[in-house]
Design brief:
Layout lengths: L1 E2 L5 E2 L3 H4 L7 E10 L2 E10 L2 E9 L5 E7 L3 H16 L14 E9 L2 E8 L1
Antiparallel strand pairs: 1-2, 3-4, 4-5, 5-6, 7-8
């Protein structure tokens, strides 16, 4: 089983990633510290193929994670670069000019009948 959003356990997609089979191999792993959060980016492989696992661990220990097929990696990277460039172009924060929902930029990736929502928030 893997931990779903907000720490709830689910095996709904476990078959897709081969989780629980004990045949998962870690190929590469990186950790990023951004403010009070840690992000782990792992490239892994199992009998179904290679995939990326992104896990966020907040200061309170709350963990969120997502699995992406390796075929989505280039598009995911391009969106992250676009978000980074957009954020760099904003200049100093202006509390009076913040969108009501807090989203500065949003994108949706659709791959293999899955939707990935990317939001840059203040």
């Amino acid at each position: 089983m893997y931990q779903g959003r907000e720490g709830e356990e689910s095996d709904e997609h476990a078959w897709l990633w081969g989780l629980g089979q004990g045949e998962e191999q870690e190929l590469s792993s990186k950790m990023l510290q951004i403010q009070s959060k840690r992000f782990y980016l792992d490239v892994k492989e199992n009998p179904r193929g290679r995939f990326i696992k992104v896990a966020e661990i907040g200061a309170d220990g709350r963990r969120s994670q997502i699995y992406l097929a390796l075929s989505t990696a280039a598009e995911f990277r391009d969106h992250l670069s676009s978000f980074s460039d957009f954020y760099a172009s904003l200049g100093p924060p202006n509390p009076e000019n913040v969108p009501e929902d807090g989203k500065l930029k949003s994108e949706v990736m659709v791959k293999a009948n899955r939707r990935y929502y990317l939001d840059l928030k203040v």
